[in-house]
């Protein structure tokens, strides 16, 4: 069946996208294929979601367990890039949209659709991420958003659901807009839109209150070429590593984030996140890089990491620019192997030890005890030459009366 008369909808199982199935059909005359992904968001089973899509009028309902794919190919790239937008946000939603888009395009090809739809509003980043990702994979596909393009509002949704007797039981609306997956959880809107309002308990689901932590938890994470491969000596897949650290760091209240963030569409928005596993893993990975990356490579990588985070936030996952940065980042990881020990407690993941066969830390160069192989005298010549431009410039300043003033207090 490929008469291109169908729409593929990114279907979450919630009210908005459930109503959207029938609403899109009603407004465009096209049949709707629902596509749902498990990216580790928890909650209802894929089968329950699949059945609901069919009950709401989808002609096909396609579900994918994409947890390992998401962890291996998306979260691990973010980890290697130590990705933190604006220094703090590990890109939870930004890295899931490209993966979801890939599956939407696949479904469009499989089920003969010419249009892809999503439940995003016209004010956020996610609409841009879906549509730019989709266009990067198949530029012939069209995009439509029932909320943004067909005026689907909450009132319309409820009236439409009643009128068409849609089998929607959950009309209970969360006070927040939530997006979650195994890399973390984003919480926005509602009373959080007043940036002076502090987060309340009900905002959080992945983390416990860091003010009342259980006893401290020591963890050893082993990385191989930038990827976590063991936790406390047990083999783990990337998905298992993230899940375990979500649990253990979450219990200590690690990874709660609250900021005003610059969206791609130009709006400043108040965002809460909780990303216990991502924050703990990035903390460990960064410290291992401190050991294993050569100084100049490391300096460049910090700039690259920052640009990677901005570009991925800005919907450029499939862009040539990000592909080139990935090549650089990948190359830097070949010696990022070894173990990091951390104490997880009261909201913080603190590194307390590191060991690695590929580390550049050299005890014989660093030590102040006997066994020192660093020739301290050679620093004289180094400082002479390194300080030469400063000395020459200072002499000129003194000649022109512009020398740096020094305090002339006389000590009595
Ligand atoms: N502001 C974050 C981002 O752009 C989170 C978006 C969360 N999406 C949502 N529908 N609540 O990545």
TrEMBL record:
It is an enzyme of class 6 (ligase). The keyword Transmembrane helix does not apply. It holds the Pfam family Arginosuc_syn_C. It catalyses: L-citrulline + L-aspartate + ATP = 2-(N(omega)-L-arginino)succinate + AMP + diphosphate + H(+). L-citrulline binds at residues 89, 125, 129, 177, 261, 273. ATP binds at residues 10-18, 119. Its EC number is 6.3.4.5. It is found in: Cytoplasm. One of its GO terms (cellular component) is cytoplasm. Residues 6-167 form the Arginosuccinate synthase-like N-terminal domain. It comes from the Bacteria. Keywords: Amino-acid biosynthesis, Arginine biosynthesis, ATP-binding, Cytoplasm, Ligase, Nucleotide-binding. Residues 176-392 form the Arginosuccinate synthase C-terminal domain. One of its GO terms (biological process) is argininosuccinate metabolic process. Homotetramer. HAMAP family: Arg_succ_synth_type1 (MF_00005). Belongs to the argininosuccinate synthase family. Type 1 subfamily. This is Argininosuccinate synthase. It comes from Bifidobacterium samirii. The lineage of its organism: Bacteria, Bacillati, Actinomycetota, Actinomycetes, Bifidobacteriales.
């Amino acid at each position: 069946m490929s008469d291109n008369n169908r729409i593929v909808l990114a279907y979450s199982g919630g009210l908005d996208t459930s109503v959207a199935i029938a609403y899109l059909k009603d407004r465009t005359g096209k049949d709707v294929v629902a596509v749902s992904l498990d990216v580790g968001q928890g909650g209802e089973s894929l089968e329950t979601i699949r059945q609901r899509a069919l009950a709401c009028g989808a002609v096909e309902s396609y579900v994918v367990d994409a947890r390992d794919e998401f962890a291996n190919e998306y979260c691990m790239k973010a980890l290697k890039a130590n990705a933190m937008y604006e220094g703090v946000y590990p890109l939870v939603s930004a890295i899931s949209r490209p993966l979801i888009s890939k599956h939407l395009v696949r479904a469009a090809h499989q089920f003969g659709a010419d249009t892809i739809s999503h439940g995003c509003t016209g004010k956020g980043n996610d609409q841009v991420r879906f549509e730019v990702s989709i266009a990067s994979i198949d530029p012939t596909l069209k995009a439509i958003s029932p909320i943004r393009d067909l005026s689907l509002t909450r009132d319309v949704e409820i009236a439409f659901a009643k009128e068409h007797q849609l089998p929607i039981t959950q009309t209970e609306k969360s006070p927040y807009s939530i997006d979650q997956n195994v890399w973390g959880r984003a919480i926005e809107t509602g009373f959080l839109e007043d940036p002076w309002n502090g987060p309340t308990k009900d905002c959080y689901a992945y983390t416990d209150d860091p003010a009342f932590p259980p006893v401290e938890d020591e963890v050893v994470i082993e990385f191989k070429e930038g990827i976590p491969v063991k936790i406390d000596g047990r083999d783990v897949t990337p998905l298992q590593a993230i899940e375990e650290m979500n649990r253990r760091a979450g219990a200590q209240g690690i990874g709660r984030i609250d900021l005003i963030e610059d969206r791609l569409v130009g709006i400043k928005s108040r965002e809460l996140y909780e990303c216990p596993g991502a924050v703990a893993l990035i903390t460990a990975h960064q410290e291992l890089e401190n050991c294993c990356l050569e100084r100049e490579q490391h300096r460049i990588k910090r700039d690259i990491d920052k640009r990677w985070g901005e570009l991925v936030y800005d919907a450029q996952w499939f862009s040539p620019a990000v592909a080139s940065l990935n090549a650089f980042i990948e190359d830097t990881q070949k010696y990022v192997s070894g173990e990091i020990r951390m104490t997880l407690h009261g909201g913080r993941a603190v590194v307390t030890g590191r060991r690695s066969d590929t580390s550049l830390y050299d005890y014989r160069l660093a030590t102040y005890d006997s066994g020192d192989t660093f020739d301290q005298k050679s620093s004289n010549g180094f400082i002479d030459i390194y300080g030469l431009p400063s000395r020459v410039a200072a002499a000129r300043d003194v000649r022109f009366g512009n020398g740096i003033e020094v305090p002339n207090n006389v000590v009595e």
